Amino acid sequence: MALIGTYETRLLRPETAAGAGAQTVLLILLDAATGLGTAGWLAGAAFTVATWALLTRALHRSWPPRPFGPANAVTLVRTTLVGGVTALVAESFASGPRTAALVALTAVALVLDAVDGQVARRTGTESALGARFDMEADAFLILVLSVHVAGSLGAWVLLIGAMRYVFVAAAQALPWLNGPLPPSMARKTVAALQGIVLLVAAAGLLPVVAAWLLVLGALASLVWSFGRDIRGLWCVRSRDGAPVARTSRPRVAVVRERAHEGV
């Protein structure tokens, strides 16, 4: 009985339960407002289940245990909006775009991206879990937006959303890519630019040629940013003469700085 009680406690985290409930309510509202079909509901449901499972697992694996905190609550709200964007993008391939709803949810999510970090710093609740949660929400939003924009501008736009995941995969084979990176305002600016540019392209505010050039410029800046950081990590490796060890601290540092403080 004790084991069953522990198992149920692990599953029924109030934070993740609240997130799943909010996601379900948002999907119902989107259905009423825009008419989500099967594709949208399936994508939204899959996102809800995946978020609940991964966040629950992360909360129980984090050490030392800490309260969920106000900053993570903001990130959870943003993640809920990302789930709505995911459902709308999936539905756009089945029955046409819901541009107004997609733009509204994305705009609020991007604004909140500037809020959770400030809340964490001001309340003294910064943590590796919070940084990772923030990063994953950002990364997935950019990926989903790039999928949406690729439908009108071309498959090459997917490089924007995929680049961070390719970097993480490469770091599994090349441990020196897990090295810590110094803070960089240029990196943060380039990362923030990706979401803004993709939002503008998704909104259809520009002629196709102008949108194409704008998104291409964002991709070029992202390639430059990743290239600069990879070069810096390689120089550190060459100077030290040994690969970076696989430890949790460098891993947290590179996740915090390289991924989706932006992309």
Structure described in brief:
The chain folds into 2 domains: 1-126, no CATH class; 154-263, no CATH class. Helix content is 81%, strand content 0%.
Shape: globular
Our measurement of the CA-to-CA distance between the termini, rounded to an integer number of angstroms, reads 45 Å
Overall pLDDT metric: 85
Give helix % range: over 70%
Rounded Rg: 19 Å
Give the topology string: H per helix, E per strand: HHHHHHHHHH
Poorly predicted ranges: 1-9, 244-263
Query: How many structurally independent domains?
Result: 2
Largest sheet: none
Helix/strand-derived category reads mainly alpha
Number of helices: 10
Strand content: under 5%
Strand tally is 0
3D architecture notes:
By secondary structure, the protein is mainly alpha-helical. The protein has two domains: 126 residues, no CATH class; 110 residues, no CATH class. It has ten helices and no strands. Helix 5 packs antiparallel against helix 8 and helix 6 packs across helix 7. The radius of gyration is 19 Å and the shape is globular. The termini are far apart. The N terminus and C terminus are likely disordered.
